[in-house]
Amino acid sequence: MSPVPTMPNPGLGTFRLEGDTVKQMIHTALKLGYRHIDTAQFYGNEADIGAAIAESDVPREEIFVTTKVWHDRLRPDDLKASVEESLARLRMMQVDLLLIHWPSPDDAVPMEDYLLALSDVQKDGKTRHIGVSNFTRAQIDQALDILGPDTLLTNQIEVHPFLQNRNLVAHCQSHDIAVSAFMPLAVGKVMEDPTLQEIATAHDATPAQIAIAWLNQLGIVTFPSSTREANLKRNIEALDITLSDREMAEIATLDRGERIANPSIAPDWDQ
User: Domain limits at 70?
Assistant: First the structure.
């Protein structure tokens, strides 16, 4: 059984969106009922997101805000300084979830150093929850050895029908670490898949909605990105779709290990 996540689902992905574009998207999404916004230091849009939330009629305490520490700010003093900078840009005293965006490349900064610093930030009240992103099974085990059980809320990883990451998902969930999925639509490739198109037709839905519904039934939170109100509305409505066991099994056959986010700083994947 997967844990019940405390993160609202779906969230709103903001990668590559800045300025008035991301501000308008946030206003639209909050109007539609979204209550989870995912950003990162690397995205360069924390200030825009902070401004949009400050301008919104939705109370701050009703919005779950996630941000992430970039890999070049992982030394303990620098990590803590970077969090202060993120909070200033976001116009917040506290975020809801703070993640390590990528494990330190080649372990340049020991994991114990940056995870204990992350824990210190939580103890100081700068974030409600802590977690990681792009950690392998081995790194999850190492992190739990350092921090102990019930410390990490989530491992945010790439999951979509073409990269289902089953072993890593199961490993996280077995430790009561919620899985949150980025790139759930495989940068639009789900729209072109015949199997997803056929299932979508049966539900009077889009293939993107089927991908989101599939993740939801796996107990995985996700945060697709769109600047179009119609798509934002469809994404949130996708949670109302229930796929049959046969349809879930058909989607399971689509896994081809197609990893989209695989930069030079990535760890040695152990899926």
Answer: 12-185
Residue 198 domain-assigned (yes or no):
no
| Predicted model pTM | 0.96
Domain count, the chain: 1
Neighbour count for residue 168 (Cβ, 10 Å): 21
54 is a domain residue: yes
| Rounded Cα–Cα distance for residues 176 and 259 (Å) | 25
Is 43 among the residues known to form the active site? yes
Q: What are the beta bridge partners of residue 133?
A: 156
Write the pLDDT tens digit of every residue in 27-44.
999 999 999 999 999 999
Question: Using one digit for the tens of pLDDT, what is the confidence trace for 86-129?
Answer: 999 999 999 999 999 999 999 999 999 999 999 999 999 999 99
Selected catalytic residue, list 7, 37, 43, 213? 43
| Domain membership flag for residue 74 | yes
CATH number for position 146:
3.20.20.100
